[in-house]
Write a structure and sequence with these properties.
The complex is a heterodimer of chains A (331) and B (322). Chain A folds into 2 domains: 147 residues, 3-Layer(aba) Sandwich (Rossmann fold); 170 residues, 3-Layer(aba) Sandwich (Rossmann fold), CATH 3.40.50.2300. In chain A, 45% of the residues lie in helices and 19% in strands. Chain A contains 11 helices and 12 strands. The radius of gyration of chain A is 22 Å and the shape is globular. The relative contact order of chain A is 0.14. Chain B has one domain. In chain B, helix 1 packs antiparallel against helix 9, helix 1 crosses helix 10 and helix 10 crosses helix 11. Classes of the chains: A alpha/beta (331), B mainly alpha (322). Chains A and B meet through strand 7, helix 7 and helix 8 of A and helix 1, helix 11 and helix 12 of B. Chain B: It comes from Marinomonas phaeophyticola.
Chain lengths: 331, 322
Amino acid sequence: MKGAFLVTATALAISVSSAHAADVKPAVVYDQAGKFDKSFNEGVYNGIVKFTKDSGIQVREFEPKNEAQTEQGLRRLAKRGHSPIVAVGFSMASALERVAKDFPDLQFTIIDMVVDLPNVQSIVFKEHEGSFLVGALAAMKSETAKVGFVGGMDIPLIRRFSCGYEQGAKYVTSDATVFENMTGSTPSAFNDPTKGAELAKSQFSQGVDVIFAAAGGTGIGVYQAAKDEGKFAIGVDSNQNHLQPGTMLTSMVKRVDLAAYNTYDQAVKGTWAPGLTVLGLAEGGVDWALDDNNASLVDVDMKAKIEAIRADIVSGKVSVHDYMSDNACNI
Amino acid sequence: MFETLILILDATMRVSTPLILAALAGLFSERSGIVDIGLEGKILGGAFAAAAAAAVFGSAWIGLIFAMLASIGLALIHGFACITHRGDHIVSGVAINTIVAGLTVTLGLDWFGMGGQTPTLAGDARFLSLTLPFADAVADVPVIGLIYSELLSGHNVLVYLAFACVPLTYWVIYKTRFGLRLRAVGENPHAVDTAGISVAFLRYRAVIICGILCGLAGAYLSTAHNAGFLKDMSAGKGYIALAALIFGKWRPVPVLFACLLFGFLDAVAVRMQGVSLPGIGEIPVQAIEVLPYVLTVLLLAGFIGKAIGPKAVGRPYVKERA
């Protein structure tokens, strides 16, 4: 009897330890814009698809419908022993902090925000550097010296995009006017294309001819408005050039797909480590997108200039002010 | 300054269109005695049907027909529950809103596999802007030219249709026999019944008209104003339309102005962002966002007076009690 018990216990111990070594049970919680926002969340989703294809490991997904479900979702995934759990977006920081404290043995990764806990990896991007590049390109393309910015929710992170963009535009055309609109002050501001289209039309009517939308799903309305009016738009997060070929000047690509992929990959290889990772132009974390869909809009001269600016930022010759360093955009 | 005002009014027309259609839909329904809190759901259902059909058939007009069919279908469910089975109007309306919110995303996922969205529409699958005759020719004429070319011209056909619906509704409600009976059945169904007219049939016709108008509003959202369906894209417009209906005291012309007011506040809110006012400085986004709601409360509390709805609204008609 006692022997049988021992055998079972040993078997159990073996199975548990092997579970730790080989079976990673990865999971992800998207933000409220949903995984098919063609932008930020979809970037993460693409990274997950690639991971599943390469490793054959399924990733458990959760899409919260509202703020309250975020923590419930994280907690439920944690209770089922999923690890690492990737939380997509700044808005999950406080929920993740609570859940991560309660499950110290699990690995968590948060994108776009810093959570300082021993079992959390924080991945943030230098959006201001990428925005600087597309701002410079917008100013080169603009014939009116007026460029626009449509942000999603009014938070410091989005102000960081806007501030970098403005610096880039003024770096190229020192007297450029930058129009700036925020869609709203709740997370739903990232999924309101109707409002996005109205904001874009309002800017176009004031003389703007290039708009950068850092607004998740709201951007779809901005790109549509640009198409309807024959003006230019700049995409964000994922490469969105294919959404409206011919009027998408470029996209400010933020490699969230890479961030998600690497997290899972590191977990499988056992190299996952907590702490802060900052990805900028130099690390390939942010960049501008040039492909078949926008090749005809960017001439050789513009391309050369942008690449030069890019090299200057990487080498430190041009320094881009980060809005979040002092919560101000005095340039 | 004048140009800015024209551009704001131009945006007002675009934003008000779905509100006007939905509010007139509610007007027909409520004037007949059927409370319709399900406007929101019918708009959303119509928007989805329009975008889905337009994506499949490549024609905005076919999309429009499907939008009206879907919306009429939902209206008939509401009618069946409230008229035939004398159910609670609010419960039935809320049920429709809830069902549609979930069903559109589920069907969208199944049919298109794009996370509940429909494919982006282009070309004939959308209602594009119409340029009125001579709009470009008179654009340079001061004042009138700008009003004609910017404000009146350059909208899509559904915008013009929505504004045309207002006098049409007025005529139907106040000048036709059907309209007289419709108003009577909302005030005193017993009298209508005594006169030998079917209360149920009248009310069914009213909810069908309501469905048609909500379908138009939905099609406008997904195939004219936007280029495709997105989850929850009606974004509370049905409720705002209901508020406008009460604002306008269930009369077509005041309802139009209530809708235009809401649209105008929305358009101003978009414009005001980032603008520095003399003496005040730049207004924060949050303060501008709250403006329409604050004004609504103020207007409701101070200026509108008592809004009294049709007398028999929300009460199922029971013949025996007469």
